[in-house]
Amino acid sequence: MTKARLLRLSVVLVSIFMILLIIVYWDNVGTAHFYLHTSFSRPRSPGAIAAGEDWEALPDVDEFLAKLLSSSLKQNSSIPRKTEQLLVQGSNKPVVSNLEENVRGYDWSTHKDRNSLDQEKLQVERQRTLREFCANSSFTFPTKERSFDDIPNYELNHLIVDDRHGVIYCYVPKVACTNWKRVMIVLSESLLDQGVPYRNPLDIPREHVHNTSTHLTFNKFWRRYGKFSRHLMKIKLKKYTKFLFVRDPFVRLISAFRSKFELENEDFYRRFAIPMLKLYSNHTNLPTSVSEAFGAGLKVSFSDFIQYLLDPRTEKMAPFNEHWRQVYRLCHPCQIDYDFIGKLETLDEDAAYLLQLLKVDRLLRFPPSYRNRTASSWEDNWFAKIPLAWRQQLYKLYEADFVLFGYPKPENLLKD
Where are the transmembrane segments (predicted)? Predict the structure, then answer.
């Protein structure tokens, strides 16, 4: 009898210790602001969470964490009204102070007169296409068949989490990710300006937007939560609204090339341009700085860039840089059930609709589009001097992105 009581007491003490351990190591956007928002494609209520109705399929550890988080939810049922009022005071037309963004220019024209898309049907179609091809055994591509648990932590660094509003955003470079990161910073209040959270996305300097310390990503979960990290990821993936934005894969490549190799970029010159110029243009004794190289007329050509992408040695040395890595490798759309799929081609309408669905449209507006956004009509000109065989190989390299996200096969580029 005494042993049984000691055993029960030990279990209770261990449970209390585990709870205290989680509380001690919880970060400032953890339980204090853990709002379990529902996915708009699968409505749920906080009451259902507390009742345990949504956790039947989860392992015991997940259920334990879910109940702990649900108890926190009862204590923190809404965003403080003062904070909401603070955010909504942002200017309608933010001041753009960054030199690069002044040069590129913004389109401040309103889009109210545009024919509104049937966004609900559009989302159903985009998600249906994605899920059908993920389930289609005859359509294969690398990493398709692996499970979420098989994805290494370092491949989850593009999943940004906002615990205050229950949102997960997978950012794709060259798909308006700078401004979506700004939106996530405003929503999560992860960055302060003189002690006050940023209210206006465009007030946030670019150097802070792309600073990895600014965002809570899944890749950081192991460092913060240890062995509970995967369980917490699964809970948040189940309960939070998950979204990403994509664009035509070939147009995204053109945009990446223009941004990183037509403009002076010291880091990309040293890491990528010098090897490309040596390998594919037979240049030797290249300048050590990008300004000297540009002054001497030494620039990577689009043909050099395509050769680099197709060269089998490239991936052997290191994975593709995120600016030209395939979306399926950045965001794992067959392992993560995204609730919203936006496209750059319909950015204004999609962004407005998403903010409305997230119920944050009165807190902020999505920053305006660039006037000189790379157009899909440019594909013919950019690929005119690229050999047909290379174009066909390039399509195979990015085919999964074309198919999963419903972009038509560029037949005019793949035939004589």
Answer: 7-26
